[in-house]
Amino acid sequence: MKKVYTCFCTDIIHEGHKNLLRAAAELGEVTVGVLSDPEMVRYNRFPTKTLAERMEMIRVLPEVAEVVVQEHIMYDEILDRLRPDYVVHGSNWAQGPESSIRKNVLAALARYGGELIEPPYTENAEVRKIDWQMREQLAMPEARRGRLRRLLSIVPIVKTIEVHNGLTGLIAEKTVVENDGGLDQFDAMWVSSLCDSTSRGKPDIELVDLSDRIQTINEVMEVTTKPIILDMDTGGTAEHFAYNVRTLERIGVSAVIIEDKTGAKRNSLFGTEVAQTQDTIPNFSEKIAAGKAAQRTEEFMIIARIESLILEKGLADALERAEGYVAAGADGIMIHSRAKSPDEVIAFCDAFHAKHPNIPIVAVPSSYNTITEAELAAHGVRIVIYANQLTRAAFPAMESAARSLLVHHRAHEIDSKLLPIKDIIRLIEVM
């Protein structure tokens, strides 16, 4: 009997999957690969069921003879091992990032004479409804809130990008690229006070209060499913912070990051150029402890941001503070630096990670931007935040468009640099 292989990366079986399996079974004995958790995440299909549950869900289907784990999104490794006569996949992967997977399959099959079979993709109201329900499930506060912790258990480093409205949220949600022989995408979203303030045309001095910040969060949550990490500046007083933790936890925020400074807010990247005062370890630890005591779930995370390197107080001060904040209950440590070199951040990470290998380190490589995610991960960083790139990219693009309209007195010259309106509509409608 001929051997047939197909791969599923889903938490639910709908009519489209059943149609595919029926087509596969007509060709021979069917083996189904279940995509591993890390590759599901990279493929932008966050698993709501465990790998074992997904395998059992498929194993009971009558068309299936065997279920295996497919470790990588690209098929060549498993096809070289199983050498099926046929690979069966729906016809919906000829365009976009998924086309690289198709090319990989064709190349692997060509090595030994296998054949790719592509039944028509099932497109009907029931399939669309189920897909929509799955997205809605991921968007619910209960599912979203715990997703950051789950990501930390699945992927080596959580890739986080700044968002400041629904549109940037959709960009974070939908951007998938083919890279290094696989697919890649962002895991989480960062709602920063700088970008939230900038998008409103206001200075970054805690002028935008939490109610306005929550409005931004709600706008993002309405059109996305990925976890949100919120920049809370200093967090305010311990009493206010505890109250706000409950609010943010309830609406589905996954984590907050608070910085160990006091007084009027000044952006950290100014460093010692402007007057900035660091809080004492006991005071800031009290705030962390108050927040941890206030939260009602184990999923919510409070991450302490250390400003010692920004304020040129040195590595020893940063490590002493990290010890105090972890003792107070901090779920993670963010080390901040405005240096162009990553050396001082790496020194901190190596020392802290050696003593606390299970406490996530957060890095924000805005200034030291030559270091890669893999290099950060090698030094114990578990969350990388691209904290302001979308905001900084948008301003020059919009200013350029405005200047062109004024210079040329028409829209023709700038049109080639603009996203087609249909693409904007498609981006929004897909959700």
TrEMBL record:
Keywords, ordered alphabetically: Isomerase
InterPro entries, per database record: Cyt_trans-like, ICL/PEPM, PEnolPyrv_PMutase_core, Pyrv/PenolPyrv_kinase-like_dom, Pyrv_kinase-like_dom_sf, Rossmann-like_a/b/a_fold
Pfam families: CTP_transf_like, PEP_mutase
Domain Cytidyltransferase-like: 11-97
Transmembrane segments: none
Presence of keyword Hydrolase: no
Assigned EC number: 5.4.2.9
CDD domains assigned: ICL_PEPM
Annotated signal sequence range: none
Annotated GO MF terms: phosphoenolpyruvate mutase activity
Family that this chain belongs to: Belongs to the isocitrate lyase/PEP mutase superfamily. PEP mutase family.
Protein name: phosphoenolpyruvate mutase
Species in which this protein is naturally found: Selenomonas infelix ATCC 43532
Lineage: Bacteria, Bacillati, Bacillota, Negativicutes, Selenomonadales
